[in-house]
Structures are given as C-alpha cells and as structure tokens.
Design brief:
By secondary structure, the chain is α/β, with parallel strands linked by helices. It contains 15 helices and 22 strands. The chain has an eight-stranded parallel β-barrel. It has a five-stranded antiparallel sheet with strand order 15-16-17-22-19. The protein has a three-stranded antiparallel sheet with strand order 4-6-5, with no helix packed on it. A hairpin with a 4-residue loop joins strand 5 and strand 6. Helix 9 packs antiparallel against helix 10, helix 9 crosses helix 11 and helix 13 runs parallel beside helix 15. The protein is globular, with a radius of gyration of 23 Å. The structure holds 1-deoxynojirimycin (NOJ) and calcium ion. 1-deoxynojirimycin binds next to loops.
Length: 540
Amino acid sequence: MLENNLWYQNSIFYEVHTRAFSDSNQDGIGDLNGLTQKLDYLKSLGVDCIWLLPIYPSPLKDDGYDISDFYNVHPDLGTLEDFKKLVEETHRRGMRIIADLVVNHTSDQCRWFQEAQSNPDSPYHQYYVWNDTPEKYRGARIIFIDSETSNWTWSEKAGKYYWHRFYACQPDLNYDNPAVREELKSIMRFWLDMGIDGFRADAVPYLFEREGTNCENLPETHAFLKELRRLMDAEYPGRILLAEANQWPRDLRAYFGDGDEFHMAFRFPLMPRMFMAIAKGDSTAIVDNLDQSPEIPANCQWCTFLRNHDELTVEMVTSEERQFLWDFYAPEPRMRLNLGIRRRLAPLLNGDIDKIELLYAILFSLPGAPIIYYGDEIGMGDNIWLNDRDGVRTPMQWSAKANGGFSEKLTGNLYLPVIQEGKFGYPQVNVEAQINDPNSLFNRLRRLITVRKSHPAFSRQEIEILYRDQPEIFAVQFSESGGKIICIHNLSSRVQDIVLPDLQCNLLTQSTNQTKYGIDLPAGKISLEPYAYVWLSHCL
Ligand code: NOJ
Ligand code: CA
C-alpha cells in the first residue's frame, strides 16, 4: 500500500453509484464486477480514491441508504468475494476506495428492527428510539419535507412510535445504547478488514436526540464520533473518515474537532455559492464564504464538490439566495425536491462546456480535495420525470451502443432508463466519443487534474484572494517552493482585462476558450475571455 497517511489531502475523489456504472452480467443492473472492469478508465481520468454509494442488502426505498444487512453485499451487485476483488484491483492500480457508512439508521426491513417491533424484550428493541406519543423532540426539523410530515411513525406491531430523521422506512438507531455503539464499530471493522481505505459517513449530525435541542450536532454525537476516530487511528492508521454533515460553517467546522474527529468533511456551504457566482457573473458569494470559513486543523481537509447523487441542496443559504437559485436553475417544478434542485451539472449550465470547465477549474483551485460525481466528467444529463433523486442516477453513458454501453441486456428494463433523447442522450454524450476528442469535457477535466496533481501545493489551506475590486473575477494566489501560483477565472459574459501583480510568471494552463493572443505575461496583462481562466505558476 501507498504509505503517506495524509494522502487524502491532495487526492482526486470520484463518487460511484455501482448500480449505475457498468453491468457485467446483463441483468440491467450495474455491479461490482462491472466497476472492477472500469477501473482503468477511472485511473486514466486521474482518480485517486473512489467513494462507493451503499452496496449493502436493502429494499431500496432510499436507493440503498436503507440497509437491511450491514455485513453483506446487495445480491444485485455481487458477493463479498467480488467486493474483495474490487478492493484489490483498485489498490493494484495505486488508487484507494472508501465505502458509505450509514451510521444514523437502518431499513425497517433490517432483522434488528423486525425483532425490535415484535418483541419488546429483545435486545434489538433498545436498538431504536421509541415513544408513546409523537410529541418528543419537537425542535428537530423534518429533512425530507416533500414526503414526511413527522419524525415519528406509529408501529402497529410495537404499539409505540419510533423516531426517524429521514423516510419512515429508515428508523434511527439509538446511540444511547452501548450495544448500538459497539455494533457500529464491528460493522466498521468488518469492512476495514476487507481492505477499504475508510468511510464516507452518512448523516452524522443526527446520532443523538435531546429534548429542548434541534437534535443536531449535539456534544454526545461529537463525543461518539471521536471514539470512532480513535478506533481508526489505533487499529487502522492511514484510513479515513469523511463526514456528510450539511450544516452552517461553524457547526460543520466542529466535525474536524481538534484534528481528532473527521479527517475530511464535504464543503457544503461553498457548493451553492459557486452556482450563484456563475449565474450572477460575480464572485462575491464565493469570496464571502471563503472569508467567513473557519480554519481547519492541519491534518484535515475539505472535500469540495459541485454535484452529487442527491438534490443540489440550497438549505444553507439565505431565503433570498435560495429563491434566486430556484428561479435561475429550477424554473420547472419537477426540477425541485425538498429544499433542493434535482439536476445534474451539465443541464444546470445548459450544456455549456466552457462554463462547466470553468466551474471545475474554480473547484480545483480552491482549498480541498475535489470529488467528481460519476458521469459529470462527460457532462451527462438528467431525467426530471423519474422519482425522487433517480433522475441524477441514470446509467453511465459509455458509448453510442445500445443502452449507452452500460448493459448488454436487450429485452426488458434496466434498473433505470438510460438517457437517450436530446443533446444529453448517449448517442451524443458518451465516454468513447469523448476520449477521442481532445476538446471534450473528459479531456479538459483530465488536463486540469494532471496540472493540479503536478503541484501538490494545491492541497494547502492558505490562499490569498486577488482582484477583490473586480467582482467578475475570482482569483486565488498561494505559494509553493518555486514561486506563487495564481489562478484567475472570469465568471462573466464579458472580456475582463487583468493587470498582473508585479511578478514574472509562467503559464501553467488555460481554458480551452481562452485565446493565446490575450495573454501577454512579459507585459503583465491578460484579456480574459468570457467564462475563461488562466492559471500561472512560478510567479516571482
Ligand atoms: C444522505 C444521503 O446522501 C442521501 O442520499 C440519503 O437519502 C440520506 N443521507 C439518508 O441516508
Ligand atoms: Ca448486473
């Protein structure tokens, strides 16, 4: 194995929905062996670490986030042996792999919950949170507001209400029970012993409930998460915990503790602000957020992202900002879900490849380790007519062949329909075509990844923001041994004239839409095309 225990600080992450990626046995469902066969593709993109969405047995009421057996693989996806092979093959290529750890809840089909409901004396009864009335913990918000009206659901069998922060089919585990805490640790050991490099921990703010609070980010929750970190450090050094906590900056910062809780956390508050900035042609939203972001411990790292498998959440913005984002990016009601927008990156930007490249460049210039959502490296589209968040989870488009090359199943349905019509259909948007086109999104992104990796200083936290009085521009500067790196991005639809600081720089890279005539480094001048960027290095 690769040695560096801080590897995550400068890795390129890639989020895979196994079900959606590649079908190896023609049953219309992507599987672990299918993913293993595509590892060379991920390697060629420059991926360092794969994050797998839940792969466990599940009735799939929340696409696998409703787990019915934490110690196995969903039969649709393969076997534990297939999983081990995937891990080995990933490592053999010098990549890493982390799995989803659903900490907060189980499926109502989980044997634990079945027993808990039917037998109050079963030890499993205490695995869940019960009450005689739905009145307790009224301070907790409802997260899936489009489908749930309460965090309590009546169990006919148990004759009581049970607590759930997500769908009613996802009863919350009772972390006040030491047996639950131990169970979670054995789940972690089970998967870590199979060689995975860590976990993306799901829904971590909600582990404990206390009356009179909003039941999020409680001290008890942080104390238990630190206990999990101690387990990792003691028994599995070099493996990581990545937090999914969709919270305001100060509450989110707490998940790093003093460098003794999570190694990484998704940078939720920054994400919608990148979309705001490009919509307004004004970097203020990004700059303000960076200015207000608390520092994080030296052994930690942000995980930065544009999109993922959920709706684009606009919870952590003001109500005016939310309205702006809805109006701009989700004009049709079907595009909205809960407090978010269920669309993929490319359709959000009207398929404008230059704007997509620009947003990736901004993402890659920011402190943090970037993650790419499967399919967004080729600009896949979405299908807003599908249920829940399925519209952003359609089959990966590999080629112009039947089913987009995802599956050779020729009769009957795939797990979800492939996108075939219009400008995002697989005949137009697919891996095979993009690999052969030097100006494709895939190759633009691959170039950016190569550049970023050739300068490890991109993983640093200390940046200086430049051109603050020119809000159309988002520019950051940071230091490395050979001089400064300066990344300048034009968020607007007009050419921006830039006067460089009094430094001599080399051209590190530039966007595909930037003309070389616009760059006069000896004179310290750049005319930046609309939605273009220029990155400079060795600035002295
Ligand atoms: C966050 C996951 O990303 C989402 O897909 C899921 O529905 C909830 N947590 C509940 O597990
Ligand atoms: Ca299959």
